[in-house]
Amino acid sequence: MAKRAKARLVDVARDAGVSPATVSRAMAQPDLLTPDTLARVHESARKLGYRPDGMARALASGRTMTIGAIVPTLDSTIFARVLQAMQSALAREGYQLLVASHEMNPAAETEAVRTLLTRGVDGLMLVGAERSQDAAMLLRTAGVPVVLSWVGTSDCAAVTVDNRLAGHLAARHLIGLGHRRIGMVVGHLPFNDRQQARLAGARQALHEAGLDLPGALVSEQGLTMAGGRAGCARLLELGEPPSAIIGGIDLFAIGCIQEAQSRGIAVPEALSVVGIDDIEMSAHITPALTTVMIPTARIGQLCAATLLAEIKGERRHEQTELPIELVVRQSTAAGR
Amino acid sequence: MAKRAKARLVDVARDAGVSPATVSRAMAQPDLLTPDTLARVHESARKLGYRPDGMARALASGRTMTIGAIVPTLDSTIFARVLQAMQSALAREGYQLLVASHEMNPAAETEAVRTLLTRGVDGLMLVGAERSQDAAMLLRTAGVPVVLSWVGTSDCAAVTVDNRLAGHLAARHLIGLGHRRIGMVVGHLPFNDRQQARLAGARQALHEAGLDLPGALVSEQGLTMAGGRAGCARLLELGEPPSAIIGGIDLFAIGCIQEAQSRGIAVPEALSVVGIDDIEMSAHITPALTTVMIPTARIGQLCAATLLAEIKGERRHEQTELPIELVVRQSTAAGR
DNA sequence: TTGTAGGCGTTATCAA
DNA sequence: TTGATAACGCCTACAA
Question: Fewest CB atoms within 10 A around its CB: which of A60, A289, B150, B311?
Fold first, then answer.
């Protein structure tokens, strides 16, 4: 029966008849020790059930082996996928992921940055928009590497995707099919740069074709399938409904298809629908969804790699933009 | 230009002309100080850009204000939802979430437990199965409160759901509709207690009705919609295909519906399909999915609350089982 | 109400 | 290769 609940470094040292420093080295740089002493230390450590204290280690070494990640919400296929990719890439290097979400609330985002910084992380990943001044200021004085994803700024490493182009591709595809009246269902715009960019891109494509995307043909909805259905319903009930709809996210597009079908409107014959994201489900619904593919998992991997490189001091403020592309499936057809 | 990059507690103390202890109290128990000194400390802190060091604080106080969560994968609507619920409940109390995933790999799960424990967490949440002996042993000696979810054991706090009953409810519904030949698509069973229990429950219901669920009518698939389609395809291609299929998760059931429809098999007229989970999408597809509702978000909330209560020493090993229920929609109809 | 001082468990720098 | 020892930055009795 040990006096202390937990064995410490010194306890192991005493038991093995060596100095604390030696035990420390046995854990971190085993090669520096004689096989004999190494074995003795390991034996004692096992016997005492020694487990190193991460806090003490972090305090002494200045490294926490922890990466902070801030996402809009975990409750989204897209962000969960990014996180999962980050997580496994980091775990492979011995890093853990500290996760915070802000639910599209600027103040919460700033708070999350502050909390993670205070808690102590070796690096920070910001997924999605980052717009508040306070947060930007905090990051500047953070003292730890930061990598942004989805959207980026020049003074910081980033792994991005051209959301504007995504909207542009989706719209151009429909225009090419002969559609002249195109509607769009988007997420609430105020704190969502990605949705704003996608909408702007679509609008631009229409303008380039001499067409228009009036506010009446844009429906803002919560980022759920129900939102997609509601948005579709609104657009279809217009005096002059669109012949094609762009979903700001695939979930919207899928909702649109369901809503149209439930009203007896055939997709793609009577209504074309195109999404943006290319989530797993999109390929498997009927009709399979035409969409703009965003390499979600790849973004996560690259973020992790970029951050690790920054931490090691190998690279600095590296900017990567990943290619995206239109995936034509069965939910779009020639318009009138 | 400060000598040190970061201001410390003592720097603030010096600047404000008080002792370090006073500064410490100013941050933790402001009420104990004179408004005057409190203001002076805050002023100095702001001036120096002081931010407390979480590591040092954790080492000295023994609390990290961090909760570890281990999930099978983040890349799943269900688990992401649980995590999101946990995260917001914890954030409200000032706790942060350290996330690890094991991708259904027992060794990885044990490793995750070890890592989080070493890293230092005030509590641990295990989402999904927990079967390895090593992990169980670690948890026993962990010294921090633990709460399990989805499945539970008696020697530990848990927020559970009766997965066996879920399978039972799904099967009984189909039996009640007159189906005699019922198939099931389940996840890979070896390390997935939830899927095992759901299958066992369904099988039991069939036995109780004098029916059978032979291995040939059970298809193991990866937990994706593609898996659901593949499983459905396999069952439909049998010499004597089932007239109804249970999806071990909603995603499977949705995949089954898509696969059936793409083969010209009408749901529910020619094939009934029932799922388990009740994800958002299930209510919005056509036909809307009949399923067994699992209160996912509620599980996450309760886990967080239970863990916090344990940490505060208010309760011990509290076991909660949440009710589930069949939600009848349009994907099931009378069988022959 | 505020100050003093001894840890908290490691790492890392120098020596030996 | 190993040991002694000073940080690391904060918390918290105990004193004043």
Answer: A60
Taking the C1' atom of C5, which residue's CA lies nearest? B21
Say if the Cβ atoms of B119 and A66 lie within 8 Å: yes
Supply B45's token pair.
């802190």
User: Taking Cα atoms as reference points, which of A80, A73, A100 lies closest to residue B95?
Assistant: A100
Query: In this structure, what are the phi and psi dihedrals at residue B173, rounded to the nearest 5 degrees?
Result: -60, -45
Sheet holding A325-327, edge to edge: A218-221, A182-187, A244-247, A272-277, A290-293, A325-327
* Listed residue (B132, B162, B171) closest to B299, CA to CA: B162
For residue A178, the tally of other CB atoms under 10 A from its CB is 13
Tally of CB atoms within 10 A around B291: 31
Q: At what angle do helices B77-91 and A77-91 cross, to 10 degrees?
A: 80
Q: How far apart are CA A83 and CA B150, in angstroms?
A: 22
Q: Is B57 exposed, middle or buried (0-12, 13-18, 19+ CB in 10 A)?
A: buried
DSSP A183-220: EEEEE--TT-HHHHHHHHHHHHHHHHTT----GGGEEE
Instruction: Please give the Cα distance from A149 to A135 (Å, whole number).
Output: 15
**CA A37, C1' D1: Å apart?**
10
- Cα separation of B300 and B113, whole Å? 19
Residue B245 near residue B213 (C-beta atoms within 8 A): no
SS3 A182: strand
Is residue A85 within 8 Å of A304, Cβ to Cβ?
yes
DSSP label of A154: T
Provide the token pair at B134: 């090593």
Indicate if CB(A32) is under 7 A from strand C.
no
Residues 232-261 of A with CB under 8 A from B: 254-255, 258, 261
Whose tokens are 């149209």? That residue is: A260
Backbone angles phi, psi at A72, to 5 degrees: -60, -50
* Phi, psi (rounded to 5 degrees) for A91: -60, -35
Peptide bond into B20 cis (omega under 30): no
Give SS3 for A161.
strand
Alpha carbon A266 to its chain's center:
34
Asked if residue B267 lies in contact with residue B261, where contact means CB atoms within 8 angstroms, the answer is yes
Put simply, whether A266 touches B (Cβ < 8 Å) is no
List the pLDDT tens digit at each of the 336 positions of chain B. Answer: 344 568 999 999 999 999 999 999 999 889 999 999 999 999 999 999 999 999 999 999 999 999 999 999 998 999 999 999 999 999 999 999 999 999 888 888 888 898 899 889 999 999 986 667 777 778 877 788 999 998 877 788 999 999 999 999 999 999 999 999 999 999 999 888 899 999 999 999 999 999 999 999 999 999 999 999 999 999 999 999 999 999 999 999 999 999 999 999 999 999 999 999 999 999 999 999 999 999 999 999 999 999 999 998 888 889 999 999 999 999 999 987
